[in-house]
Request: fold
Amino acid sequence: MKFPLPSASTAAKALLVMGTMGAGAYGVHWARPVSRPPGERLTEALELIDAHPPPFGLATVEVAEDILARGRAAALAAPLLGEETKGVRPGPPPILPDVPGAAAYVVGLEAFGRASEDRAEDATAAAYLLRAEREGVPPPRRHRFLVATGLSLLRAGRPSLAFVRLERAMQPQNTAGVLELADRSALWAGLVDAALRDGRAETLAAAWVRLASAPVPDSSSHAADLFRARGRIAVERKDASAAADALNQLQRVGGRGGELAVRLALLTDDLPAARVALPPVPRFPLPTDVTPLLLHGRVEEASGDLQLALVRYHAAAETAPDTADALSARLAEARMLTATGRFEEAEEALALAVEQASVMNDEASESLGDELQRACEGAIRAAADSPNGVAHCVALCDTVEPALGAPLARRLKAEVLGAAAGEDPARSAAAARAFAAWATVEPDRDRRRLALLSASRNYRRAGEPAAALAQLDRVPLTGDADPGGLRLERAELLLDLGQAAEARTAADALVHDLPSDPATPAARVLIGRAALEAGDPEGAEAAWTAVLKDSGLTPAAAEWRESLFARAQLAAGRAQAAVPPVALPDATAGDDVGAALTAAAKLLGECLAYYPDDPAADVARLARARCLLARQQRLDATESPVDPLNKPRRDALIAADLTAALADFREVESGLRIEAANADPSPAEVARLRLARLGAAECLTRLGRPEAGAVAVAAAVDQDPLSVRSAAALLDLAAARRASGDEEGGRLAAEQARLTMTRLPEESLAPAASPLSRAEWDRLFLLARRSTEAEAGRADADGAGGDDPPPARNAAP
Reply:
């Protein structure tokens, strides 16, 4: 912020009006044309301002003679002010070459004196004094000049700039001028106020160094002012021992340490001492009571009486609305209302705080922004346990946007919505819109990039990949810290949009252009997914194999794990899809289908060996069990050897496959049962649980335990009686019972399967909607046909009075 610097003619007119209205004969004298030399006029102006300097304390009462003398000095100096050249230090003027900034110095000090009566003059005084600083002020006047400049900047709302000048005023080389004791007290108080409003640790440390080295005045009242200043800085630095020492010295010189004692007691959590040191609550508060009321509120809050603390904070905020302490009280009130869930009242309190800040200066608004940011963060924490908290935070950010500025307010709003979005699509969409709105007003490149990426990712979670891609395309790749990551996210969004070929092309380009980029392994994984979606399983397998052969990756890498699982699942799916109907005569031991099932089971076993506790382990274990069961069915469908050497070996292989498959089915079933007991299972988990139960039942039946298998099948069928899986399980049970000689049990199971098939809706039999593979469908219809043929043959046999022999074991699935 730059203060507006009035021109010389404007200043002269203002002084003329002031003089003619309030200076009597002096005004008439100033109004008369004069022709004195400029050097003589400026010398007289300096003598007058040196003899009648303005007091630094606001409460100091001046005599009319001093005010009139400074007015005459400014009237003499104002016409000598020329236009200042921006960015160029003006050379020495022809008048009074040894004091180039004297005219601005005189006019600035006069305005500083008038500012004690009219606070609007603080900015004018600061502007002229800063010009005098740029043009140069002689050392004999430097001490008073620095103090006046610092205090005017502080009162104009620029504490950081003010602290620099006031800290310089206390340096030994700048203390040539002698200040009155009252002016020293104003200097110490101004230094403390500027340091506290600046708030930085280094500023507080520098203030402590200057105050600790300041000589103690002989006057007890002014010595008390110095000790209060030391104690206030020590409390703010959280130095309890230094604050206690300052309080003891203050009490030794007879000073009242009420406010300092309260702040020290709060610092040390000594609430009884804080209550003792508190001044009484005023019955009819005056503007000067705002700080005691604020301290009362802090003590009550620390002691846990939130209701009384709210009353004190509200009283402090209403007593003197245009002060910094009142603003702090209003924000404390809003913070406590938010913490107690009174969101509408908190929003109203913050709206009043913003209104208070709007009539204050820009620096107060900046410090207000920090406190409002903390209030918003407190609201975020409070929103975690309240269903209305997020809505309050959003409304709060909209309310305080004029004070915070659009970038900060919208960033807080986006962060609130992003933290509350989770996996909910609607909330993710709202968060994405908030991040996009933040990006439109954020001037910082890095923060704008973060906003755009967050908007893109939230749109993707919301199921809007087109909007996500539009936000991602707004991030410039040139000069980006992570170009590979951006290109990878773009390829993933293309795949989400169903553009598998474009996604594969983008990922291939990333691998080719940036072979050493950290995103390259993930890009190869994506190439595999895109190739599989485009109908190229060989390309997918090649991409995932390249990831597994990457020497820079280990099994701990997410890309290595994903590629291992994906390749194994692909192999299992292709092997199971290639299984022909099990009872057809093309089944031979050791054929290509059996080899594919064996290879898939081996790959799935590698996944389980590396990642036994991975969330995808259950899916891999279920797939391995189905591959083992399918391999057993292939072996069982081959012609049984009759020699005593191969038959036991074949039977042992069949038993081993069934035992291993049964163990996998049961482990999957057990894990899913535990998860279902703790939370509602997803549809995919329900399907896996049913497959595991039916697979275990089939294994038990084929291992010669048909009753146990029948119980498991019945339990699975009861879970979902009208499904394709249930019909297949009943047909399995029928075939197994017939193979074991239980013709009646087989006939009943086949009849139940036939009835289930007739009751199934047409959409359940569509290949796209069915959970069965092509081979399982072939097997299902084959067994259904055999069941129907068996029923027809039995009817014919009953009519002819003959009996058919039971089917051979090899005819069973």
User: Anything to note?
Assistant: The mean pLDDT is 76. The CA atoms of residues 179 and 609 lie 84 Å apart.
